[in-house]
Amino acid sequence: MDTNWPSGRKTDWQEPVMTLTTPPFSLVGIDHIVFIVDDMMRALDFYRNVLGCRDGYSYPALGMEQVWCGNALIVLWDVTHPGGTKAAPPVAGGRNVDHICIATGPLNHDALRAHLAKFNVTIEQEAFHGGARGMGHSFYFRDPFGNKIELKGPAEYPDGRAENA
C-alpha cells in the first residue's frame, strides 16, 4: 500500500493497526539519558562548553559525571574507569547509549506491572535510583528494538536534587 505523507515522502509499507490504550501513568518528560564515553574530560568539555550544560552530580567511584541540560540530566559514564565496569563498552558506529529515562507522574506500581505484562514487556529491573527530580522508584525494560527504557516516578524523598532542576 502506498502512503503519501504531508512531507511528500512516499512509503510502501502498510500502517500498523493502532489500538490506543491509556497507561496507568502520565508522562512528564525526559528525566535523564546515560551516554557511555571513553574520555571523561573530552566529554565534559563538550557538554559544558559546546552545549552549555551546568555541572551536576559527581560519582568518582563509578567513573560517572552528570551535567544539567535544562531540567534533565545527561549522565556521562566512563568505560575506561575501574568503576565503570557495569557500563557497556561503546559499539562501532556511535551506538553508545545505555538507556533513556522517562519521567512520569505518580506511579501505581502494581498497575504499571500489569500494564507492561499486557504487552508482553518484561521488567528487567525495579530499583530505587536518583535522577533529575531526586530519588524514586524506577522500572527498567526494553523496547522492541532492544533499547533500554527506564520509567521513573517522582522523587519519593527529598535529596536536594529537585531543587537544582
UniProtKB/TrEMBL annotation:
<keyword id="KW-0560">Oxidoreductase</keyword>
<protein>
    <submittedName>
        <fullName>Glyoxalase/bleomycin resistance protein/dioxygenase superfamily protein</fullName>
    </submittedName>
</protein>
<dbReference type="InterPro" id="IPR029068">
    <property type="entry name" value="Glyas_Bleomycin-R_OHBP_Dase"/>
</dbReference>
<feature type="domain" description="VOC">
    <location>
        <begin position="29"/>
        <end position="154"/>
    </location>
</feature>
<dbReference type="InterPro" id="IPR037523">
    <property type="entry name" value="VOC_core"/>
</dbReference>
<dbReference type="InterPro" id="IPR050383">
    <property type="entry name" value="GlyoxalaseI/FosfomycinResist"/>
</dbReference>
<keyword id="KW-0223">Dioxygenase</keyword>
<dbReference type="Pfam" id="PF00903">
    <property type="entry name" value="Glyoxalase"/>
</dbReference>
<dbReference type="GO" id="GO:0051213">
    <property type="term" value="F:dioxygenase activity"/>
</dbReference>
<dbReference type="InterPro" id="IPR004360">
    <property type="entry name" value="Glyas_Fos-R_dOase_dom"/>
</dbReference>
